[in-house]
Amino acid sequence: MIAALLSPVGHLYGLSVRLRQGRAPYRPNARVVCVGNLTAGGSGKTPVAIALARMLAARGKKAAFLTRGYGGKLKGPVAVEPARHTATDVGDEALLLAAAGMTIVASDRAAGAALIDRMGIDVIVMDDGFQNFQLAKDLSLVVIDAAFGFGNGRLIPAGPLREKPEQGLARADAVVLMGEGLQKIPFTGPILRAVLHPPAPEALAGLPVFAFAGIGRPEKFFAMLKSAGARVLGQQGFADHHRFSALEMSWLRTTAASFGAHLVTTEKDYVRLGPSERANVIPVPVLAVFTEDRGLKPLLDRLCEAQA
């Protein structure tokens, strides 16, 4: 009932996306790869962006990440320095990206791209920004959580969608289905498949853990721990980008100790914690591993040829 009542507002949200499409985009010298989604958070686009940047580096291309820096106070454009910036400054996703390569935070994506151009970068990898039309995009990948799909099929705030699937997928060059589940989508282009794996799953095998996460879908993190063989004795989910209080961290540590378990969380949550809050908390990183990527090579070939 609540979703139905909010549907008119959702239609206005979808209209705002269509109206933004009419703007003339900025064309940087670097080629632009956009990794986005159609829903609000939780699809796994940041690990996919990192995986693509590594593929481009293997082809001899200099790549840099461009992100809005959601949750951070800096509007940019600014180059992220993990030793100096915190999640309060640039957001948690920007810190994850910066650990993998040069990262620019800019609420104005065109200004961010102009800064990257001055660095002599070959390819800009946009983490998010599929509904942002400030930049001309050469390649757009839409990441979809295969287990969640499109939720209730309604637009924000009545549902999780940023825009209608048929509208968004019409602009996509390829779709990445993350995990197991969704089989059919209204898209005729290349459909890639990927999963999220910890880089060293053997380290989790048999490990007693109490897990917490403030991401789009915390249950995905808990399920990944179990599939890696960890003994998940307890778990606690929070809202996406949740800022943990000292009281919450104290409760989490006490609860984990009562289970005789290690306290673990995602890398994304870990970077939001202050130095003192990280005590006795183990971050579990994830990598996006493509299980079906035959359609990706031609797209990257085309991108690299265009850049050359």
User: How helical, in percent, are the residues?
Assistant: 25-40%
Poorly predicted runs are none
Helix-strand makeup class: alpha/beta
Strand content: 15-25%
Structural domain count: 2
Layout of secondary structure:
Blueprint: H1 2-20, E1 31-36, H2 45-58, E2 63-67, E3 78-79, H3 87-90, H4 92-98, E4 103-105, H5 109-117, E5 123-127, E6 139-145, H6 165-169, E7 174-178, E8 191-197, E9 208-213, H7 218-227, E10 231-237, H8 246-259, E11 262-266, H9 267-270, E12 281-284, E13 287-292, H10 296-307
Question: In summary, what is this structure?
Answer:
With 308 residues, this protein is of the alpha/beta class. 32% of the residues lie in helices and 22% in strands. The protein has helices at residues 2-20, 45-58, 87-90, 92-98, 109-117, 165-169, 218-227, 246-259, 267-270, 296-307; strands at residues 31-36, 63-67, 78-79, 103-105, 123-127, 139-145, 174-178, 191-197, 208-213, 231-237, 262-266, 281-284, 287-292.
Outline the structure in words.
- The protein is an alpha/beta fold and 308 residues long.
- It folds into 2 domains: 2-195 and 289-307, 3-Layer(aba) Sandwich (Rossmann fold); 201-285.
- Helix content is 32%, strand content 22%.
- It is built from 10 helices and 13 strands.
- The protein has helices at 2-20, 45-58, 87-90, 92-98, 109-117, 165-169, 218-227, 246-259, 267-270, 296-307; strands spanning 31-36, 63-67, 78-79, 103-105, 123-127, 139-145, 174-178, 191-197, 208-213, 231-237, 262-266, 281-284, 287-292.
- The strands form 2 sheets. The chain has a 9-stranded mixed beta sheet, with helices on both faces. Strands 10-9-11-12 form a 4-stranded parallel beta sheet, with helices on both faces.
- Helix 7 links the parallel strand 9 and strand 10.
